[in-house]
Design goal:
The structure holds two protein chains of two kinds. Chain A is mainly α. Helices cover 79% and strands 0% of the residues of chain A. The longest helix of chain A is centred in the N-terminal third of the chain and has 36 residues. Classes of the chains: A mainly alpha, B alpha+beta.
Chain lengths: 314, 510
């Protein structure tokens, strides 16, 4: 098992190097000059030139990339161009908010998704099935910003006008109450995927012979569905939830913007806008690492769910 | 059955906790905590590390300069009690005594010298260095702890307004020595508020500085929250989450204005929006074409459609709130016949097609659309090209553009700042003269205005220059910006400042 994890971790290295190269190249060839953006519209040309020299922007592409890699192996991602703070600190400042939000959102998504999926599959072609699928469709088609604003309207504005206080604050981060609305907004969008995959996976499992056997043994419907069927139907659900979680960990630009959450999505957009290339690289690299780790975690979860797979992990 | 009871109980419990905390926080609110919403978080709390308004606004509560701007754009003493011009290029400043930094150290002339040296040090590479580029830093002379002589390289009339700029805020020498590179997160200034806690990307919490020389601030705490979305800022203001919100957007103006608990302040900012031409590109090198375009546009319609209450028609080449503004220059009004005549004279009776370059900004997009529509009347076919900000600055700086839209903020409020970068031929390209305009007489007038110390004389130079710019239709002035601040009725003594850096020392909460 540990050998398997170690092998997987080592195989991440070339992926990460590839990611850094692609990102570096994109930032390098993007029009616009980081030095100009840093100094503002009105900086004299000589000063911009001096800044370029200081920042090492006049070096050839490969030299710049080499310097970046050299820093990377010393765990030095450089300084953010706009704030002068180490890129590593910038990311660590924003990551907790994103992880909390992603965690809460995936919880909401799984709770809604798996429940709706089970209801839909066990009552196939009934009104419950149709209803659950309709809600799933609604969840995935409702834009985040719209749902976010509607929730703010109801739970902040309307609630405040009626009861004299705000049920859920419309922006900011820190307490559980701040987390509720963004988690629901993000969660519902992802719940739809999980609902669909749970339903189809359950439908397939429920037709299996051993389910019939279980029923004919006289087991109650609840035990058949939740113990025998669900566990076997979970594999694709776990994959989907894992992938969704990875996406969520990338931060959600729209939701973070509306609710003023200090997360990774906003940080990335801000840094791309200001051509803060050191920070962009740091963030993308972090995403790549997170994504690889989430994938690994999903694979390990397979083993936990299905003992047959565990044997193969050596 | 039992299990479902448990589920219901849990749900009720969670909901109960959420409700309870809701009521609790309302009651436990600190009565003297003033919460302000800002567009963005500060990039750094070191004034020499930044050039953005979100950072400067917060820094202006923490630090002070030798002098500061008044809300009517005059200059008043701050850390310097008084000053005297010794000759036409040297000012002697008499510093306030007994002023304490937030770390307890006393403020002296050493801190002034240190601040300016660090700002101008090419190794340090401050983005604000160009603000004090006129200061002859090697010859600054400390007479005693409370007297300092600051010479400029050449006579420079507007030096005080530049010393009042946020880049020239005075930082603590011992503070920088203690914190080094982390000074931006551990600011030490002399202002009425000091840093308590900074949750990056979220909020900056400032505490009242009790030893402030001007007397302690009215409120105990001042919090700047970063709320990037305009609608969210207004909702927070409405629901009591913030007391003061800068940057109320046009769609929300009525909502704030009609709200019983909110007051809307509209104030003139110092920015002018314009539509520029590349004078080195055909056909805009022809004065008649530029004039024709000036005659083709309906200013009032443009401002009404795009800005509404957040802008006034610009009728000159500097923002009308800058003291040297000449109101009698730009006299073009929509006159399509005259415009067609001029087009015919220039040889474009059948019109031409051109490109309007803008950066990715909603206001500029609508501006370009309205202008494009109005130019169609002259058979000028335009295509609108949208660039990302960095690429936009790059492209217009190189001169690859034809028509472009930009704005200029003269945050010092001085005509030199408002005109020299934009119109002097030495600043062609990315230094500000993106229309590549070249006129020896204008150059001469701008140079004279820079060194002349007599205010009336300066006024005359700058007004003549504006007349020439207008005769040449260097660009088309579009709108002077107005900004909107929403304030809760419980806030007392709030006074908006044209620079946008509203001060909170005297602001209270009822």
């Amino acid at each position: 098992m540990f050998r398997y994890i170690a092998k997987r971790l080592i195989s991440m290295v070339p992926v990460l190097i590839g990611v850094t190269f692609v990102v570096f190249a994109i930032m390098y060839f993007t029009p616009g000059d980081p030095a100009t953006l840093l100094l503002g519209e009105e900086a004299p040309q000589a000063e911009v030139e001096r800044m370029r020299e200081r920042m090492g922007l006049n070096d050839p592409f490969l030299v710049q990339y080499g310097n970046f890699l050299l820093g990377l192996v010393q765990l030095d991602l450089g300084l953010s161009l706009t704030t002068g703070r180490p890129v590593f600190n910038e990311i660590m400042n924003r990551l907790p908010a994103t992880i909390r939000l992603a965690g809460a959102a995936i919880l909401v998504a799984i709770l809604i998704g798996v429940t709706a999926g089970i209801i839909a599959s066990t009552r196939q072609y009934t009104i419950y099935d149709g209803g659950a699928m309709f809600i799933a469709l609604l969840g995935v088609s409702m834009p985040n910003f719209w749902l976010g604003l509607m929730m703010i309207l109801v739970f902040s504005v309307f609630w405040n006008n009626t009861f004299g206080y705000v049920l859920f604050p419309s922006s900011g981060f820190g307490t559980l109450r701040h987390l509720v609305m963004p988690a629901i907004v993000l969660g519902t969008a992802h719940a739809a995927f999980i609902t669909r995959i749970t339903r189809s996976s359950m439908l397939e499992v429920l037709r299996q012979d051993y389910i019939r056997t279980a029923r004919s043994k006289g087991l109650s419907n609840r035990i058949v569905v939740y113990v025998h069927a669900l566990r076997n139907a979970l594999m694709p659900v776990v994959t989907m939830a894992g992938l969704r979680f990875g996406v969520l960990l990338g931060g959600s630009v729209v939701t973070e913007q509306i609710f003023a959450i200090p997360g990774m999505g906003r940080l990335l957009v801000e840094s791309v806008r200001s051509q803060n290339y050191t920070l962009v690289q740091g963030i993308i690299l972090t995403y790549a690492i997170i994504f690889s780790l989430v994938n690994l975690a999903v694979d390990l979860l397979y083993a936990a769910i299905d003992p047959r797979i565990k044997v193969q992990y050596k | 059955m039992k299990r479902s009871h448990l589920t219901i109980l849990t749900v009720l419990l969670i909901v109960g906790v959420i409700f309870a905390t809701g009521v609790f926080t309302i009651e436990a609110q600190n009565p003297k905590k003033l919460i302000v919403s800002n567009f963005a978080d500060a990039n750094s709390l070191d004034p020499q590390m930044v050039s953005d308004t979100a950072s400067f606004w917060i820094q202006n509560q923490i630090y002070e300069g030798l002098v500061r701007r008044t809300p009517d754009m005059g200059v008043q003493p701050a850390l310097a009690e008084d000053w005297k011009f010794i000759d036409d290029r040297t000012i002697e400043f008499y510093l306030r005594q007994g002023v304490k930094f937030h770390n307890g150290d006393e403020f002296t002339a050493e801190d002034v010298l240190f601040s300016y040296q660090r700002l101008l040090d090419p190794e340090f590479g401050s983005p604000g260095a160009s603000r004090l580029a006129m200061v002859d830093i090697d010859n600054v002379e400390i007479i005693d702890d409370y007297t300092i002589r600051i010479p400029t390289k050449e006579p420079f009339a507007a030096v005080l307004t530049y010393l009042a700029h946020s880049a020239s805020l005075i930082i603590s020498k011992s503070g920088v020595e203690e914190h080094g590179d982390a000074f931006g997160e551990n600011p030490v200034g002399t202002g009425p508020f000091k840093l308590n806690n900074w949750r990056q990307g979220d909020e900056v919490v400032l505490d009242r500085f009790d030893d402030y020389w001007g007397g302690p601030a009215e409120v105990d705490q001042l919090v700047f929250r970063a709320i990037p979305e305009g609608t969210s800022r207004t909702i927070e203001l409405e629901t009591g989450g913030v007391h003061v919100s800068r940057g109320i957007e046009r769609v929300d103006l009525d909502r704030v204005d009609n709200h019983p608990n909110l007051v809307l302040h509209l104030y003139e900012a110092l920015r002018i929006n314009y539509m520029g031409f590349n004078h080195e590109a055909e056909p805009f090198n022809d004065l008649r074409v530029r004039q024709a375009i000036a005659y083709a546009l309906d200013h009032n319609e443009i401002v009404q459609a795009v800005y509404g209450p957040l802008g006034g028609p610009a009728t000159g080449y500097i923002n009308s709130n800058i003291w040297a503004f000449n109101p009698d220059t730009y006299l073009y009004h929509r006159d399509l016949d005259r415009a067609r005549e001029l087009m015919a004279e220039a040889g474009y009776a059948d019109g031409f097609s051109t490109k309007i370059a803008i950066n990715d900004d909603a206001t500029r997009r609508s501006l370009a659309e309205v202008v494009s529509y109005q130019l169609e009347q002259l058979n000028i076919q335009t295509s609108i090209e949208v660039y990302e900000w960095g690429a936009y600055l790059d492209m217009t700086g190189r001169g690859d553009h034809e028509i472009y839209m930009l704005a200029w903020l003269a945050s010092t409020g001085d005509p030199h700042h408002a005109m020299h970068p934009l119109f002097h031929s030495s600043n062609k390209g990315s230094a500000g003269n993106r229309q590549f305009f070249d006129n020896p007489r204008v150059d001469e007038l701008l140079e004279k205005g820079m060194v002349e110390t007599d205010v009336d004389q300066r006024m005359a130079f700058y007004q003549e220059a504006q007349q020439i710019l207008s005769d040449e239709v260097v660009w088309i002035p579009l709108a002077d910006d107005r900004e909107a601040v929403g304030v809760h009725v419980s806030v007392t003594n709030f006074e908006p400042c044209p620079s946008g850096y509203h001060m909170f020392h005297k602001v209270g909460l009822e």
